[in-house]
Amino acid sequence: MTEPYELHADYVVIKALDNGVTIIGLTRGKDTRFHHTEKLDKGEIMIAQFTEHTSAIKIRGKVELLTKHGKIRNDE
Asked: Which of 6, 10, 28, 35 could form a disulfide with 55 if both were Cys (CB 3.0 to 4.6 A apart)?
């Protein structure tokens, strides 16, 4: 089965440090739009992947973010 996205696309691991963290996926193309939203509670983890449809991820709330560039915390 052929997937509609590159299998080795960049991804990030998001760990919520508080309840109510919002993760918003933003589209590619001429007009940037929201295409997906998730809510995480403290301790929940989400793995998000950049694909042909997702060009950016917006995060609201305190998180620990793991990327190929290292670990980032936005509560420090």
From this structure: 28
Closest by CA position to 10, among listed 51, 45, 38, 46: 51
Domains of the chain: 11-73 (2.60.40.50)
pLDDT of residue 9: 66
d(CA 74, CA 65): 8
Whole-angstrom Cα Rg for the chain: 13
Its pTM surpasses 0.70: yes
Alpha-carbon distance 50 to 10, whole Å? 5
Q: What's the rounded Cα separation, in Å, for the pair 29 and 53?
A: 8
The per-residue pLDDT for range 30-44, each reduced to its tens digit, is: 777 878 899 999 999
